[in-house]
Amino acid sequence: MKTFCGRANPTTGSMEWLEEDEDYDYHQEIARSRYADMLHDKDRNTKYYQGIRAAVCRVKERGEKAIVLDIGTGTGLLSMMAASAGADFCYAIEVFKPMANAAVKIVEKNGFHDKIKVINKHSTEVTVGPDGDMQCRANILVTELFDTELIGEGALPTYEHAHKYLVQEGCEAVPHRATVYVQLVESKRMWSWNKLFPVHVEAEDGEKIIVCPSEVENCPGVPSVCDIQLNQMPSTDFTILSDVVTMFSVDFSKPIRSASTYYRVQLEPVKSGKAQIVLSWWDIDMDPSGTINCTMAPYWVKSTSAFQWRDHWMQCVYFLPNEEPVLQGEKVDLTACRDEYSLWYKLQKARGEEESKADVRVESPVCRCQAHLLWNRPRFGELNDQNRTRQYNKSLMKVLKTDSVCLCISDGSLLPVLAHYLGAKQFFRANNLEDKIKIIEARPELLTPSHLEDKKISVLVGEPFFTTSLLPWHNLYFWYARTAVASHLTSDVTILPQSASLHMMIVEFQDLWRIRSPCGICEGFDVRTMDDMIQNSLNFRESKEAEPHPLWEYPCKSLSDPQEVLTFDFRETVPQHCVSTKGSVNLVRKGKSHGAVLWMEYHLTADISVNTGLLQISNEKGNCEWNPHCKQAVYFFSSVIESEVLSDLPSAVTYAIKFDTKTGEITMDFKL
Ligand code: SAH
Q: Where's the Protein arginine N-methyltransferase domain (predicted)?
């Protein structure tokens, strides 16, 4: 079956109707899934295996048959571990059909088809009884239903149901228990992801400060989890205000209540400061005694944590609704509220038992100021970047004249405000304060002279930034919008940025390569069926596509010098013909060529640029420093060339990169 799906093209802005295969969503989901990352997580796998062996032993020692329920079996891995450990029978539940199909094949291939029954259902639909999916209730419950926030993938309601209907009382559970830890910190860097700091404008008549409206200042923000690779956050970027404390634990072997609740702990600050952020992570004990422990603790808590890299489980950053001054030694109450799927925090002065019970409000934070809906966390960080603002400030000063008529095309941009403070008299802003800035609610191609009060635009500006952009070059939408408004521009219009360039570099990733690398054999089980399925989905459409990743979180080493590969001149309209380039880039360091990274640089004026990608190569080893607010495009090579010595490497990688001006898409091909 084919379906037509409508979507706005992020680069050209035009509405497209694409004929999609029925399986299109599946392929997308499989191609970008985290299954490979999980199966490469050796620490996780070995600890599950140990925990499962121990649970099967405990049941057998009681003289019982070991009947396993594995909820969310994926490839069938944990069920195969259980069967190998001597379990008598496993019910492997998987809701995602393509994965359940793969599990059937994998179980068969590894010779466990008589011990494992794969059931393609959501666990809450599973029936028990002589004619049911399961003959009887299980006495071992194995799951891996956790996300970085622990409960975000619905582990609690799933466990609640399983204990009521699918497992015996007193069952063994692997993992046995999860514990959530918190630490209070002050961090200007992380706080800048949730609040708008005052913007300093250097005008000719002195410095002016744009302050954030109080609605934004006092807004608690949005409830969505902020999960990051905290191990990439240098210790100089935050100040620890409390010890690490246990917020709450969940015992998975006992009945579970998923209904909203709260937990409260008392903290004694180890330092005075501004409490802004709660950092949080969890660990799981695979057995009741807690000897088999798998932890997400960051490097300053557990020094070896950086070696256990994983992307499917990271750490959480929670923003307190407001920053609170705390004093060393003066106790405070930290409350964690949760519903079935998410958590949020609040901090109060420590009070008596009764008093504190009286006032527990468990509504999750909702953005009242709109800004948190318009700007995501990296975008807040970008707008708060004073160095970046300075570049726009300087370049606007160069191009603005007192009689300029300006139009800004960018989503949720502060440029109009900046320009206003710099003295621009007439300002229009398309798409998205005062009398001096007129907001036009029209798409660029629908702009009419009356929107502009019959004036011609003499300065067209953009950051450019659009919320619909996923890949760096999607912001070329600015170029299309500029083309659409061409008839409203004066003949000597100034366009800022005047041009953009696409840059490329070959890299070796420290860890990120794992997410797209085949697993082959995992803990002795052949999971190549899953590798093939992922490869098939990648080939379905994505094969020649790059994917966005915030590389400040994913260390890599440059193997080639960065190279400018394409330029886009915004002073001209978008050309009819395609823009393409071919060339080769020399490998200058030994290492594994995992892929190419691509990013955009915007040339605001002839001598002022903002870079959304590589900031610098920090040392002779080739370690890279990336723009912390932007995602870069990563194109993974299908085969990795590895070499110990430079002379064994191909000396160059050849590339062909094409920008199709009709579709706005950039396609690429590399040969090693
Ligand atoms: N157990 C595998 C895969 C874990 S990923 C492993 O450890 O490698 C979690 C899987 O659980 C996903 O495939 C997801 O589709 C599935 N899932 C999540 N909740 C489920 C539920 N309630 N019932 C059935 N499957 C579920």
A: 176-348, 498-646
In the chain, % helix, strand, coil (3-state, to 5) comes to 25, 35, 40
Tokens 């622990």 correspond to what residue? 150
SS3 state at 197: coil
41 close to ligand 1 (CB < 6 Angstrom)? no
Rounded CA gap, 636 and 597, in Å?
A: 9
Domain count for the chain: 5
Residue finishing a domain among 439, 467, 496: 496
Give, in order, the Cα–Cα distances in Å from 58 to each of 64, 514, 630, 663. Answer: 9, 35, 50, 61
Q: Which residues contact 120 (CB under 8 A, 6 or more apart)?
A: 94, 95, 97, 100, 101
Residue-wise pLDDT for 179-203, tens only, equals 999 999 999 999 999 999 999 998 8
| Domain final residue pick, 496, 519, 542 | 496
Q: What is the mean pLDDT of residues 419-430?
A: 73
Return the best residue to mutate from 145, 146, 147, 252 for the ligand 1 pocket (most ligand atoms within 8 A of CB). 145
**Residue 566 near ligand 1, beta carbon < 6 Å:** no
β partners of residue 636? 595
Whole-angstrom distance, CA of residue 172 vs CA of residue 170: 7
Q: Atom of ligand 1 at shortest distance to CA of 44?
A: 7
Cα angle vertex 586, ends 582, 589, to 5°? 150
This model's pTM is above 0.90: yes
Residues paired with residue 504 on neighbouring β-strands, in sequence order: 563, 598
Residue type, 269: P
Q: What is the pLDDT of residues 496-532, one digit of tens each?
A: 999 999 999 999 999 999 998 899 999 999 999 999 9
For 281, the token pair is 């992570």
Task: Please state, in angstroms and rounded to a whole number, the distance separating the CA atoms of residues 630 and 545.
Answer: 18
Query: Which ranges in 526-623 belong to alpha helices (H)?
Result: 528-540
Q: Which residues are catalytic?
A: 144, 153
Instruction: Determine the straight-line distance between the first and last CA of the chain, rounded to whole angstroms.
Output: 38
Q: What is the mean pLDDT of residues 656-668?
A: 93
Could you tell me if the CB of 145 is within 6 A of ligand 1?
Answer: yes
In this structure, the answer to whether residues 198 and 297 fall within a common structural domain is yes
Backbone angles phi, psi at 46, to 5 degrees: -65, -35
Q: Are residues 563 and 597 in the same domain?
A: yes
What is the whole-number distance in angstroms between the Cα of residue 93 and the centre of ligand 1?
8
User: Is residue 617 classed as helix, strand or coil in its secondary structure?
Assistant: strand
Closest atom of ligand 1 to CA, residue 121: 24
Protein residue with least CA distance to atom 20, ligand 1: 72
Query: 474 and 336 in one domain?
Result: no
Q: Which domain holds residue 396?
A: 385-496
